[in-house]
Hints:
By secondary structure, this protein is of the alpha+beta class. Helices cover 42% and strands 30% of the residues. A 4-stranded antiparallel β-sheet has the order 2-1-3-4.
Amino acid sequence: MRITIAELKQNGFSKELLKRSEVWDKLYSVLGENAPRKRLLHVDYKGKGRDMNRSHILYQPLGVRDGEMIASLMRAYEARGCTVSGIVEVDGQCRITAVHYVRPGFLEECVQDLAETAKGHN
């Protein structure tokens, strides 16, 4: 089952990842303005016939464009035999700050899921 934005807000970004990233934040802080940019990304994907999702913290080096970073992340999923459905960026409160990728047809699937869920509640 696909994670909803409400669930992401309720459960939050992976607290374990955020805790681990604090070490990298301290290490990179010595670089000042040359430090890589910290990105909180949430990926919705299909793997092994199931809808799945995963939180990622990426440190984007200077000079690497957003499109290159997203393409690299997508290639990593594809190499594992997965199909990426969507990639969003969130802030520390799990508010979406950017939508980096949406697979064609994904929004229609989401609406269909919502419609089926609504039918089940009637």
